[in-house]
C-alpha cells in the first residue's frame, strides 16, 4: 500500500515538473481570436506589447543616501505587540 502511494506521488511530481520547462513563443491556438484592442487604441496589441509592463508598473527607485548619522523621528505606528 505504501509503495503505490509513493509511485503515485512520484508520477504526479514528474508530470508537474514536465510542464514547467516550455520555452516556445506564445501563439494563439487554431480557431482562437486575439483579444480586442484596448480602449482608445486602433490596433490590437501584439504578444510582445501585451507582455511588456506599462511604465506605471515599473516605478523608479528612490534611494536617499544618508551622509551622516541622524536621530530617528518618533514613529506613532511603532507599537508594542498586544498581550
What can you see in these coordinates?
- 27% of the residues lie in helices and 0% in strands.
- The chain has 83 residues and is mainly alpha-helical.
- It is flat.
- The model has no long low-confidence stretch (mean pLDDT 80).
Q: How are the SSEs ordered, and which strands pair?
A:
Layout: H1 2-18, H2 47-51
Give a quick precis of the structure.
With 83 residues, the chain is mostly helical. Helix content is 27%, strand content 0%.
Instruction: Please state the CA-atom Rg, rounded to the nearest Å.
Output: 26 Å
Summarize model confidence as the mean pLDDT: 80
Number of strands: 0
The main pleated sheet reads as: none
> Helix/strand/pairing class, anyone?
mainly alpha
Q: How widely separated are the two ends?
A: 48 Å
Number of helical runs?
2
Specify the overall morphology: flat
Question: Which range does the strand content fall in?
Answer: under 5%
Write the H/E string, N to C: HH
Catalogue the unreliable spans.
Answer: none
Descriptive keywords:
83 residues; mainly alpha
Amino acid at each position: 500500500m505504501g509503495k503505490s502511494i509513493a509511485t503515485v506521488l512520484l508520477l504526479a511530481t514528474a508530470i508537474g515538473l514536465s510542464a514547467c520547462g516550455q520555452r516556445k513563443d506564445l501563439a494563439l491556438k487554431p480557431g482562437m481570436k486575439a483579444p480586442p484592442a484596448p480602449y482608445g487604441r486602433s490596433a490590437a496589441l501584439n504578444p510582445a506589447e501585451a507582455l511588456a509592463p506599462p511604465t506605471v508598473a515599473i516605478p523608479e527607485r528612490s534611494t536617499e543616501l544618508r551622509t551622516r548619522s541622524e536621530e530617528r523621528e518618533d514613529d506613532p505606528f511603532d507599537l508594542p505587540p498586544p498581550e
